[in-house]
Amino acid sequence: MLQAVGEAMYQAMEADETVVVYGEDVVGGAGLGEPYEGAMGGTFGATRGLFHRFGRTRVRDTPISEAGLVGVAVGAAASGIRPVVDMMWSSFTPLAFDQIHNQAAKLRYMFGGQASVPLVLRMAIGAGLGAAGQHSDTLYSLYTHLPGIKVVVPTTPHDAKGLLLAAIADDDPVLFFEHMRLYNTRQEVPEEPYTVPLGSASVTRPGTDVTIVGVSYMAKLALEVAGALASDGIEAEVIDPRTLSPLDSETILTSVRKTGRLVVVDESPPRCSIAADLAAMVSEHAFDALAAPVRRVTSPHSPVPLSPPLENAYIPDAERIRAAVDTVLNR
Amino acid sequence: MNVPDRTLLEMFETMTRIRLFEERVTLEYQRGDMPGFVHTYIGAEAVAAGICAHLSDDDLIASTHRGHGHSLAKGCSIAGMLAELYGRETGLCKGRGGSMHIADFEIGMLGANAIVGGSIGLATGGAFAQQVKGTSNVSVSFFGDGGAGQGILYESMNLASIWKLPVIYVCENNGWAESTPASYSQSVEDLSRRADGFGIPGHVVDGADVFAVHKAAGEAIGRARRGDGPSFIEAKIPRISAHYVGDTQKYRDEDDLAAAKQRDPLERFGSELTAAGLLDEAAVEAIRSAIVEELDRGVAAAKADPWPAADGVTDYVYSGAYGA
Ligand SMILES: Cc1ncc(C[n+]2csc(CCOP(=O)(O)OP(=O)(O)O)c2C)c(N)n1
To answer: Which residue in chain A has the smallest CA separation from B87?
Structure first.
């Protein structure tokens, strides 16, 4: 998926001269002359090669100044260019929260539609590296709460490329969440640029017995669990929402009306979260279709711990998803 | 030099302790059974040792992602730190935090911090509390040249200055923030110049020279204890270590690394003490072997120590019982 993300940025920059990419270590060796072979190209390598192709005006390393990076992106976006900012980890975005929430999200509205803020903030998310409390958050739910912000959570390389190209072309601020455990997933993607529209979920497995909605890495895990359930004669329909804001509620509702049962899987604390949001949405609009209460499989209401047994307890796993499916099926 | 011999030897012991701890942790980490990320303090030992030599358990420090050196210099136990690195219930933070979050509040160590710049407010607030409580304790804020990119430093410095808080800002300028050189990312060469804008005295010291660090720290800490307000010390240190254990540093010029290694603070201090007749080979060996033994015991114990129980994942989120 990492390569797909890099290719999307590359192609967006080729197509539109106003697209710029910056962030901490996105070049990774600036100041040492160019071209610099050992350049880091971002914490995970997604921006590798951009500097060599597009040069120092459009691809820049930055100081460690998240509030400033996003503030400048807002001003630049409102003034006619398209910044794509690498925030490294979502856990670092709260340093820029004012700029995201009070500036990026609200400018268009407060100024009566005059301002357009076409920026993208890319970031890695997720537990599983033992990176502990200040690196491992998912935070997409926090930003889904904010009117004016769009939230993208790709699961496959194909979607990552198409969604990122759509996000960069979008005229609103988009936060783009890349689960670091998905970076190594491989899939052929079309070489030419293409977009996957924001606000369209993907049914990754059709089924009739139960609907499982998984977010980000959990969509992949849900698909694996569904495969195992099939050998027990249970046909799960798996939905990857792909974007949380806007949300394709119709695809989810249609599925639940068919299966009558819903399990939502989300690697985040459960309160005021996307899992809570989906459960409420389905209860509100498809209560009559539900044969069992909605079940949520989430992380506990805690920060992410370091210790492996605790971290494993934090991350939803296949066993817990299966147990939730059993519960909604009254098995 | 008017530093007591005993203090000099203690600082040498502290620096050796940090170096051996980091070398051992690097080795153990590479075996693959230590979770998380590890950033070593190799090359910066003189800063932590020179500053913490002036501090008691009632004084405070707040640290960074590269916090092992500060922790050891402040007095954290090797056993407690190792158990924390291995994520065990016996660790200083009960395995919840790991390398980037080592803390020991009993001895005034307010924590390593994985948010760059994240502990600057903490240290400043620690100083504020001392002022309110009327103690003569001080608080030290450690951060890197990268940390100097964060706005909270400047907001904190202004508060500390107008309130005359007993805080010492210690910028460990190793010339690098991950792969980004300070020469690129900072607008001035001497970051201490920025303190001037807040009415705070700023000093540059050679961070590989423990005498210079110790002296500058003594003055700054004395000033803070007298109620005369904050100071800023910029210690220029060589980044001998990679950014994290496993970082290949391909982005870095070989000459830059070689030059850094030339400035090894521990070697330098060792030769200075030897020349002054305070140390000889046997004494160094005795210091080293005692530490190595402590490390051997610490690693073995940590690996045998119990894991936290899985249902303890929500412990310590709040002060007490949390709702129903
Ligand atoms: C707020 C925040 N942004 C980015 C990072 C990622 N990061 C970790 S260490 C580091 C470089 C820090 O450089 P510096 O402060 O100079 O300390 P050094 O590593 O050189 O000791 C970066 C960018 C982070 N941990 N926190």
So the answer is: A307
